[in-house]
């Protein structure tokens, strides 16, 4: 699958101190690779649904193509590898 065909979802919360860093990283990579990118708050129904489905208990959490890829803020290198794989 090409990087542009990936779908990245970032689960966040209003109280999360590191979520803006994760969002900035994924926004930067989205501009470069062109994948679909969404930010979902776990306080909202769709964010809660993903957290429940994948048993996610911490934010930020990154879901790539429906699978939990990262909990916390990945390094740029880790994120690039995940998008390119």
UniProtKB/TrEMBL annotation:
Organism: Thermocrinis ruber
Source taxonomy: Bacteria, Pseudomonadati, Aquificota, Aquificia, Aquificales
InterPro entries given in the database record: Thioredoxin-like_fold, Thioredoxin-like_sf
Name of this protein: Thioredoxin family protein
Stretches assigned to the Thioredoxin-like fold domain: 11-83
């Amino acid at each position: 699958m090409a990087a542009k065909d990936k779908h990245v979802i970032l689960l966040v919360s209003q109280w999360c101190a590191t979520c803006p860093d994760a969002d900035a990283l994924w926004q930067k990579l989205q501009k470069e690779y062109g994948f679909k990118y969404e930010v979902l708050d776990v306080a909202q129904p769709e964010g809660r649904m993903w957290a429940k489905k994948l048993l996610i208990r911490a934010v930020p959490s990154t879901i790539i193509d429906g699978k939990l890829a990262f909990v916390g803020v990945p390094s740029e290198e880790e994120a690039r590898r995940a998008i390119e794989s």
